[in-house]
Amino acid sequence: MFAPKDVEKPIVPVRLNLDSTICFSCDRELACFTKCCHNNNTYLTPYDVIRIKKRLNMPSDELILRYTVPGKVEASDLPVPVVKLDETRNNACPFLGDEGCSIYEDRPVACRYYPVAAGLFHNADISDNEQFFALVKEGYCLGHDLGTEMTIAEWRENQGIPPYDEYNRGWVELILRRKSLGPFVTIPEKTLDMFFMASYNLDAFRRFVLYSPFLNIYEISEERLEKIKEDDLELLNLGYDWLLTTLFGAGKLKIIEQVATADSIEVD
User: What is the rounded distance in angstroms from the CA atom of residue 8 to the CA atom of residue 244?
Assistant: First the structure.
């Protein structure tokens, strides 16, 4: 399942689609309010990191160090930052405040989807992957069957999910391509470091692009170069292109002819 809060949550075994309906409301008057903000396993996607670091006015290096622990994408060896729970507050999310989520407008996509879990059927043609959904029902949650009935499509719009899907699309493609190689293909540690840096630690990736031999190896237009100096989303897209090119030979970036046979650049 994509972007789960916890891979072991009780998922109702009924496959849903965008036209399926749910009825759910999370209200501070409910006795269970913020219980889902404890003891969970929340992955951060690339766009989550961008939104939260801007919200906290914090570089990605510091955000990852202070607020996450290392994890793995489900059924994969690819690294992913997982929100570090606060053991002094009953394993609460570090962003949980007295009135609820302190970064609510920039909360992770996993929190936005809840109580919906989303997944993808991986087809041979990656552009034709089929998205599906399921409902998560936990015993303590009192929000089910409350509020206005919505389709999954309406719920996604209501929770502000579409931009997350758009900006995480390249990341999802990378994960699906990795999974398509099968579990017996070993990914070198340096490659996993590349994936982590370009996907989540964008401030480190920007330094890597600007101050390593990167620009002597790959053809990057002046226009694109100027954009990535300031725009994290442009930089993220460059990261996707770089990873697809170097890891899967997708040819998203053109290699400068004179260095086409040179040794690969090092990732610190």
Answer: 31
